[in-house]
Structure formats: C-alpha cells, structure tokens
Design a protein that fits this description.
This protein is an alpha+beta fold and 488 residues long. It contains 24 helices and 11 strands. Among the domains are: 141 residues, Beta Polymerase, domain 2; 86 residues, Hydrophobic Seed Protein, CATH 1.10.110.30; 55 residues.
Amino acid sequence: MKLVVPEEVKLIAQALKKAKFQAYLVGGCVRDLLLDRVPKDWDVATNAKPDEVQKLFPNSVYENDFGTVGIKTDSENPKLKILEVTTFRLEGKYTDKRHPDEIKFAKTIEEDLSRRDFTVNALALDVVKGIAGEIIDPYGGQKDIKEKIIRTVGNAEERFDEDALRLMRAVRFAGELNFEIELNTRRAIEKLAGLLEVIAKERIRDEFVKIIMSDNATRGLLLLEELNLLRNVVPELREGIGVGQNKHHINTVFEHNIRALDYTVKKNYSLRVRLASLFHDVGKVRAKQGDGPDSTFYNHEMIGAKMTLKIMDCLRFPKDITEEVTHLVRNHLFYYNVDEVTAAGVRRLLRRVGPENVDDLMKVREADRIGSGVPKAVPYKLRHLLFMIEKVKNDPLSPKMLKVNGEDVMKILEIPPSPKVGQILNILLEEVLDDPELNTKKYLESEIKKLGKLPDKKLAEMMKEAKKKAESVEKGMEEEIKKKYYVK
C-alpha cells in the first residue's frame, strides 16, 4: 500500500534527520493512512529536545509542558499550517485519573509508543528521504486494524485508570472506525465506567461531540449505554429506555430519539440539528400520563426544553449553541394545516421561532417524523408551510421592522423613555402581523396618537390581548394537537 505523506511533513522529517535526529509520524495519522483515510492531524515524534527543535525551526512556538513544538508552515491547507513535533516521552502515574503526575523525555520511539492508549494508535511510521518507510508496531496495531478491533496497549484497567477519558475514546474510535471493542477492553470499560465522574465536563463534552458528529453516531451512543457510560454523560436520555409511547409511535422514547439522530447523521446535518433531534423528545417520560396506545405526553416539549438546557449547561456547551438547541426542542411540536393556518399565523410562527431558525427547525421536524416510522420526511403540509414562509418572510415580524420606532413614539406623544413606548410598538406590531399593508409611517403615526390618548390601564389590557394573540400562533391548532396526543 502506498502511504501518501504531505510535503510539509516530509520537509520537517528531512530537516530533523539531516540534523542527525529521528523523525516518525505517530498515532492516529498512521492508523488513518493504513485505513486509506485522510488523517485529521499530522503528528511527528522525535528524539530531539524542544529547544533543539526550535533551533532547527525558528518559525515555531513552544507553550506547553508536554514537549510539543508547533512549527508554522507556508501551507494553504488549514490542517498543515501548524504541524506538531513532540519529543519522545514517558508519563508517570495519573493520580487524578486525568493528567500524568510527571512527564520525562524518552530515548526511543518504542518507549514513546508504550504510553499510548490503544494499539491502533501505538504506531510509528519512519519517513525516509521523503517517502513512507518502516512501520514501528510493538503492540500489534496493524493486526488489530486488519481485524477491526479496539484494544488497549497493555493492561486495560491500568490504561483506563491512568486517564478515564479513554473510556469514551474507546467508544468513539469504535464508532468512527466501525470497529469492535476487544473483550478484555470492553470488560474493563464496564467495570471502570464510574471513573468518568472525575473527568472535567468540558473533556466529556468534546468526546461526546466527536461521537455525535461521526458517521456512526447512533452506534456510538448505543455503545455508551451498553458499556454503562451514558449515565455519566447524558443520564436524561436513559429515562426513555423501555418507555413505550402511543399508537403514533412504534418505538420506545429512547429508540425514537436515537432514530431521529440517525436521520440527521445520514443527512450530514449540523451539530445543533443533531443535538436537538436527539433531545427533542427527552421530556416525554416526565410528561407521560397513562399507558398503552392512548397514553399522552402533553407539554413534553416545554419539559424537554428545560431538560435540554440542563444537559447542555452540565456539559459546558457554549451559550449560543445551548440557546439554539434548547429553542429548537421547545418549538419542535408546531402544528400546521394547509386549510387552517393563515398568512398571519405563519408570520406569528416566524416571529416566535425566528426566521434564522426555520431551516434547522424543519430539519428537526424531518428527523422527528422519520424517527416515528413514517415514510416521508417532508410531506405536502411541510412543503406548503415552506412556501408560505418564503411568501411572508419579508413582512414585518418584529417591532424593529415597523416603519416607526421608539423615537417616533416619544416625539409624537412628547413622553420620555418608558414601558409605554414598548407597549405601543407591540400593539402596532400585532396589527401589522394581521395586515402588512398597514405598515406605513402615515398609518402608524396616526395609531400612535390614538393609543397615546388611552389610559395606562387600557394599554395594559390591549397588551394582554396582543400577548394572547401572539401565543395562539396555532389558533385552532391546540385542539388538533390535543387530539393527536390524546390530551383532554
């Protein structure tokens, strides 16, 4: 097999060898080359010390305690702009199950490979004169790659006890590569699953995201459950295991959420859509009333949104993605009937959901449908809704899109900034949502004058009415939703 190594990597290896040092490609990039996959990273290991590497490569950065020097290249490929060169090293005990107590430089590549997690990653490729040469493989990694097996280097319990995140990494590699986890390795994971409790949530999140974004995400999630790890990652998902639904669903709540995720993976949808699809019905278990074909799950989208917010916060997701995923879960259960919903209703739906979220919301709805076992992801009703959204998307949907603003209200009524200004703008918006033709400066200014003459109590009553109208985006739909979920 011809192993193709980028020129940028070859040049670094050649420079190290010319200076009488060793240079090997190591870890995942060697594994991926053997699997005929494009490596995500290119890591070079050498017996040169960090200061020696920096002397050879002045355009480099060394800002860590692990012997890794980042060498800047002129490559246009983002993955090759900075290549990491790390001195052979050995690691001491892992008292905190996360970081080695000490790191010391090793003399040989074999010593360096002995500290690695899995045999498929304990490989080194000697780059000789710019071509791929001998593979250093002291732990049978090539054999395990051929047999599609994930196996630890040495004693499995010791490897996981050193760094408990390796428990999740084993699952991630098994999912990403479509490999099986070797029996002793598997048993060690099941036994030591509780060690995940001491791992920083950010590190767990990063591995969870890699699992979710892999082509075999559903297999990865099922492995997390099989190996007792899911309870320390997203325990809320486990609540749906074995929980039946009603006559509209052929699967349990857990199975339905997994199938919804699977659809988004096949469609190569974004992380936000994948997470929202996985969590969209997480609240059903807590909302369930009754059992059998007539059981109900009323309000599960609101319960699920609160649970999703807690999940995302617990895993330390960034605020923006947390808010968007929670918003998608909260709004996934919208109802739309071609004969019942008006253009004004669609405008209110857009106002509530946000035009920028419509595309992702539709994708979550597709996943929900396919996860329920229906044949079509996008039926005529959804296609018609998309048509209506396209038709009204440029209509006024928020106070900012009105032809008047707060300054106009204060000037016309000769009042200072106050809640009254916002009340008037929101009342005007409700009028314009019903009829966009009313969004003219002349008409709205005349309405401002009329509203300004009303007592505060009357304005407050009108605001309540406006709020009720806004909340009934699906006017007449509530009963349909209740019928669908058998809610009385």
